[in-house]
Amino acid sequence: MMTNKVWVFVDQFKGEALPASWEAIGEGLNLAGTMGGGVTALVFGKDAESVAQNALHYGADEVFFADDETLADYRAEPYVSLVSKLAKENPPEVILFPTTTRGREIAAMTAVDIESGVLVDVVALDVEDGKIVATRPVYAGKILTKVTCDARPLIITLRGRAFTKPEPDETRTGVVTKVNPALSSDDIATQVIEYTQAEGGVSLTDASVIVSGGRGVANNPSLTPPDGMDEKEAEIWRAQQGFKLVGDLAGVLGAALGASRAAVDADYIPYEHQVGQTGKVVSPDLYIACGISGAIQHLAGMRTSKVIVAINKDPEAPIFTLARFGVVGDLYDILPPLTEALRQRLGK
User: Fold this and answer.
1) pLDDT digit string (tens) for 249-286?
2) Could you please report the per-residue DSSP string of 203-265?
3) Does residue 168 belong to any structural domain of this protein?
């Protein structure tokens, strides 16, 4: 085994790595360039040889690869135990994780196992006087703070799309070191019974463009709901018509469909679409907010978007203070012609 100071956990599922993992390798290369040494990638799973090879193509110098039936389905215990075992045997300076659902869980539990520190949702990394300095948002994203931690190995989760993904080089080679699992099947308490396929569409976490709707999607009293609906049912029906317009725009742009917490809490749209402090934290190139007033909780989840466009009929809506471009008007009047214009411009 090499003695690289920088390790990167590659979050993969069924042989497909999440793009945030390659962003983490890219940032790992930057750290390694300053600290010396190379990058070791951690790839665990069943039949994930292609992911291990891709890690080399994206810049890793070595891959610790575990190919075992106990790692076929994601369960925290075998993954965490193996990361902890490797980190204790040959401690690096830092282990980087993408801030994904699996990445956050493994990072937190590994920090407990190896009695180390963890810095979460980091958006920038530097090395100053030999110390790793992490920049992360606090106070609902209103302030960026620089933090350090003396614990080693230091565990850091990186916000998706906050770092540049390197270009893969398929001619790159490296060392793939096979490692054995840390737990046997009998040692793992959790069992996976079945999977339920989630609704298709573009992933919010990975999307470069997101179009989101808020409570304003239901504010069209001119729409006449079907007979027999009570007041709440009529409200949800109107919201569904509004989200169809939001979804049409997202479809033309190849974007992910998002929503505010208020829209989710009102049962307009399922939770998996929620953007915000208690939903998905996103950093797309373009974020279009339709009928979203801009509560602090929502702004915390999309504040780091590169370009924000707000569409709201209330000129005093807080979302306009964050938006680069603002359109004051009813989304029911604005979205249909906007979608059609983009459809013609993009040839869709």
Assistant:
1) 999 999 999 999 999 999 999 999 999 988 999 999 99
2) -TTT-SEEEEE-GGGG--TTS-PPTT--HHHHHHHHHHHHHHHHHHHHHHHTPEEEE-HHHHH
3) yes
